[in-house]
Amino acid sequence: MSDDHFLSRWSRRKHAASQGKPVEEVPAEKVSEALPAAQGSNPVVEAAPEPLPPVESLTPESDFAPFMKPGVDPATRQAALKTLFRDPRFNVMDGLDVYIDDYSKTEPIPAAMLASLRQAQRIFAWAAEDKEKVAESAPAPSGESPPVALPAEVESESQPASAAAPSVIPSQST
Predict the structure, then answer these.
(1) C-alpha span between 111 and 117 (Å, rounded)
(2) The dihedral of CA 102, 107, 112, 117: what is its sign?
(3) For position 48, what pLDDT does the model report?
(4) CA 146, CA 138: separation in Å to the nearest integer?
(5) Domain ranges in the chain?
(6) What confidence tens digit (pLDDT) does each residue in 113-128 have?
(7) Among 8, 58, 120, 145, which is most buried by a count of CB atoms within 10 Å?
(8) Can you tell me whether residue 50 is helix, strand or coil?
């Protein structure tokens, strides 16, 4: 490989490619010879991987670091992790799982709650009937037609908020 700096070589090749000139190829022998020299004078020799202990012999106190190395089979790593997480110390609910319940299963409304809902429905119907009776029995002003009784929901929505609640001015004490 030449003694050129990487960026100058890259620039030269990029310029040649933009002009349509053939790009000079470096033979594979020169690349393989240059790599160990570029990495340093002491090439790292990879040691044979140490044998892993059997997964069945693992306990939560065992060392799981050898199973986390890059060259380990993923199935073996997963089996070791399953062994580790079977320990009851990892199966404690922390109380922060507020959405863990299954809300897709509905429960019927209890009979006591249904009875109170029916009672409230009867009370509101009774109150609406009373308003209608009061509106019908009220004498009409001279020359005007009697007022039309509105249902309670429509009546409360048609009134502005200021008319529904009287305004109270707090007294100021000095």
Answers:
(1) 10
(2) positive
(3) 63
(4) 8
(5) 6-38, 55-86
(6) 888 888 888 888 888 8
(7) 58
(8) coil
> CB of 43 within 8 A of CB of 36?
yes
What are the residues whose beta carbons fall under 8 Å from the beta carbon of 148, sequence distance 6 or more? 135
DSSP-derived letter for residue 20 is: T
| DSSP string across 86-154 | TSGGG----S--TT-S-TTS--PPPHHHHHHHHHHHHHHHHHHHHHHHHHHHSPPPTTSPPPPPPPHHH
- Residue 53 has a pLDDT of 86
* Residue-level length of the chain: 174
- Written as six digits, the tokens of 161 are 């908020």
pLDDT in tens, 62-92: 888 999 998 899 999 999 999 888 888 887 8
Residues of the chain with pLDDT under 70: 1-4, 23, 26-49, 139-174
Kindly report the number of other CB atoms within 10 A of residue 80's CB atom: 20
| pLDDT of the residue at 76 | 92
HEC string of 33-90? HHHHHHHCCCCCCCCCCCCCCCHHHCCCCCCCHHHHCCCCCHHHHHHHHHHHHCCHHH
**What pLDDT does residue 30 have?**
58
Burial class of 132 by CB neighbour count within 10 A (0 to 12, 13 to 18, 19+): middle
